[in-house]
Amino acid sequence: MTERAETPPVTPGTVTEVAVCIIGAGPVGATLAARLASAGLPTAVVDHAGLPPMELPEFDGRAYAIALSSRRLLDAAGVWDLLPWAPGPITRIRCTDGAPGEAASALRLHFDAAESGTEAFGWMVEARALRMALNARMRSLAHLIVRAPAKAEVTRTAGGAEIRLSTGELIRARLVVAAEGRRSRLREQAGIGIATHDYGQLGLVGAVAHELPHEQMALEHFLPHGPFAQLPLAPTPEHPNASAIVWSEKRGIAERMLALSDEDYGKEIQRRMGDHLGKVTPIGRRWSYPLSAMHALRYTDTRLALIGDAAHGIHPIAGQGLNLGFRDVSALAELLLGTAADPGSPELLAQYQAARRPDALVMMGATHALEKLFGNRFPPLRLARRLGMAAVDRMPKLKRAFAQRAMGITGALTR
């Protein structure tokens, strides 16, 4: 495979022919671009923002939980080995219902990667590290054209698509992929409706340093106002013991938490996380976003496919949002690279929707049900779900099935 150091300069009026043009160079869009171009398929990726500003120079508290199937995808795209530092493996997961100090929380569900026959359930990758690896990979690929920053105007017909850029360049493609996120302009232009649900919560995201090592164990507490997760980060010279947190809270309470001082914010985290890692100290920035579910009524249109958040958005209770987008990438790439047919043909797009929409609906339904089940304080229901967790903990085959589903290694996605 021929590689290059930089994308050649753009001359206004240039016409470029590619098989696939991806609009949006976020983690999902960029990974699809790298995967297709790595296999030699002529691809373009366009983003309204420039790539260098996406490379954050300092730790900011954001990280992704990358499932096993997602790691395999990043390997195939040539991205994983370009991560600037080692990710943190998740080899154990402990789930409890209720605050750490509650006696009933002794009824818990524990997963161990060794019991599932895998190296790890997943890996914690800092957002800035993944961005740096994606940027480096995209810049190196001979079969990939990167245009960022550039605004795109897309025209689609049965015969193909034209993407006119603010740089004056025209890109002709057989397929356009919308990877612009939940507010996808391409989805709206195609007249594709969405179904939404507002959870009335904010997701609080950040990181903490702690006194004791996490020993690669993730923790999820199911609390009345939303789940609280502690996810193990790889050690660094500055923070040898650190974890990411993903904390779902009722909107009003979350806004009060965000207004606290670092000391008081750390105390609130400690209350929810418990003392098993010693004293915790917030590090990096605090991030928050409203929690809602969203699902596109269809994933395709003429010469158009939706991936990632342009197609679906789920509650973070199971940490599967980005991984669900990566599963879109795997399915679409497998179809595009496995056939010499027209990349934007109705037949191929129908296959993509049939492969992805049911899986996304299942995951959306599961996360929605979990949020409603564990957010209910009705005493008999609390007792029933705790006993259920304890029972599942004693069923190795069922635990293994749950773990494999979360890792994305069941069914057609095993490859």
What name is given to the CATH topology of the largest domain? FAD/NAD(P)-binding domain
Low-confidence stretches: 1-7, 411-415
Task: Please tell me the overall pLDDT.
Answer: 85
Q: Determine the CATH superfamily of the largest domain.
A: FAD/NAD(P)-binding domain
Q: Percentage of helical residues?
A: 25-40%
Strand content: 25-35%
Give the ordered list of helices and strands: EHEEHEEEEHEEEEHEEEEHHEEEEHHHH
Radius of gyration: 22 Å
Shape: globular
Number of helices: 10
CATH class of the largest domain: Alpha Beta
Q: What is the domain total for the residues? A: 2
**First CA to last CA: what distance?**
23 Å
Tally of DSSP β-strands: 19
Which class do the helix and strand fractions yield? alpha+beta
* Biggest β-sheet description: 8 strands, mixed
Per CATH, which architecture of the largest domain?
Answer: 3-Layer(bba) Sandwich
What would you say this structure looks like, in words?
- With 415 residues, the protein is an alpha+beta fold.
- It folds into 2 domains: 15-59 and 128-195 and 294-372, FAD/NAD(P)-binding domain (3-Layer(bba) Sandwich), CATH 3.50.50.60; 63-127 and 198-292, D-Amino Acid Oxidase, Chain A, domain 2, CATH 3.30.9.
- The chain contains 10 helices and 19 strands.
- It has helices spanning 27-38, 68-76, 127-140, 185-189, 251-258, 262-273, 321-337, 346-374, 379-392, 396-407, and strands spanning 15-23, 43-46, 63-67, 88-90, 92-97, 108-112, 122-126, 144-147, 152-157, 160-165, 170-178, 194-210, 217-223, 226-232, 242-250, 280-296, 300-301, 304-306, 312-313.
- The strands form 3 sheets. Strands 1, 2, 8, 9, 10, 11, 17 and 18 form an 8-stranded mixed beta sheet that branches. An 8-stranded mixed beta sheet has the order 6-5-13-14-15-12-16-19.
- Helix 1 (27-38) packs parallel to helix 7 and helix 7 packs antiparallel against helix 8.
- The relative contact order is 0.17.
- The model is unreliable at 1-7 and 411-415 (pLDDT under 50).
